[in-house]
Amino acid sequence: MGSPESIATLQDRIIACHLCPRLVEWRAAVAREKVRRFTDQEYWGKPVPSFGDPRARLLVLGLAPAAHGGNRTGRIFTGDRSGDWLFRALHKAGFANQPASVDRNDGLRLRDCYVTAAVRCAPPQNKPLPQENANCRPYLLRELELLTRVRVIVALGRFAFDAAIASVGLPEHSPRRPEFKHAAELRLTRGVTLIASFHPSQQNTFTGKLTEPMFDRVFTRAREIIDENVVSGLCS
């Protein structure tokens, strides 16, 4: 992955990936069989690319595409309830031009924000295997190399939290196993701050484990850190 390339070229390579046979079979089966409410739609059924502003200072990191969300629409966090929560919060914090994400051509634009995932194919039961996570890791590492202005990573869920730490790294003398809890902040290398958030899955939002004000505060805090970095001259 050392050759010069753009974010767009990297996404093309991600879309063409066939490294994980189990995920290739699963994503294709879901796209073929569909669910009743989407029988009239053509599913994407491939690895789902990241998207956003290539000069972003905020990186939002999720686990993987949803079987009938990103795997259907072809855009991460698009077409499912988790995406409804995410883009509404990003819009409130000024990172998105609209509060909803329905399909790839709905006019959504991200400002100073980039959205990605640790694993790019929808996994069965939302549980990628360790080897599948390892196969996808180089794509995330390369994105982080190309997204040179990132100062804040918001990790949606423990899986993404661990992926961010493994990909960016901890400063020396940091705790070996940082605790994951909602709204926790952790300093990583490269001048990056990691903010942990509960994932906006229905399991969390329907039960009240994650509320809209709790989620909004995460992105308000991300904005504050970015603004603080501007004032101190770390980014512009």
Could you give a quick summary of the protein structure above?
With 236 residues, the chain is an alpha/beta fold. It is built from 8 helices and 6 strands; from the N terminus they run H-H-E-E-H-H-E-H-E-H-E-E-H-H.
Distance between the termini: 28 Å
The major beta sheet can be summarized as:
6 strands, mixed
* Tally of strands: 6
So, the CATH homologous superfamily? Uracil-DNA glycosylase-like domain
Could you list the spans in which at least 5 consecutive residues all have pLDDT below 50? none
Order of helices and strands: HHEEHHEHEHEEHH
Instruction: Give the fraction of residues assigned to helices.
Output: 25-40%
Mean pLDDT: 94
Fraction of residues in β-strands: 5-15%
Q: Looking across the biggest beta sheet, what order are the strands in?
A: 1-3-2-4-6-5
Question: What general outline do the C-alpha atoms trace?
Answer: globular
Strand-pairing-aware structural class:
alpha/beta
What descriptive keywords fit this protein?
Uracil-DNA Glycosylase, subunit E; globular; single chain; 6 strands; 236 residues; 8 helices; alpha/beta
Would you give an account of this structure?
By secondary structure, the protein is an alpha/beta fold. It has one domain (7-232): Uracil-DNA glycosylase-like domain (Uracil-DNA Glycosylase, subunit E). Helix content is 39%, strand content 11%. The protein contains 8 helices and 6 strands, in the order ααββααβαβαββαα. The protein has helices spanning 7-15, 21-33, 70-73, 81-92, 130-146, 158-168, 202-205, 212-232; strands at 51-52, 58-62, 113-117, 152-156, 185-187, 193-197. Strands 1-3-2-4-6-5 form a 6-stranded mixed beta sheet, sandwiched between helices.
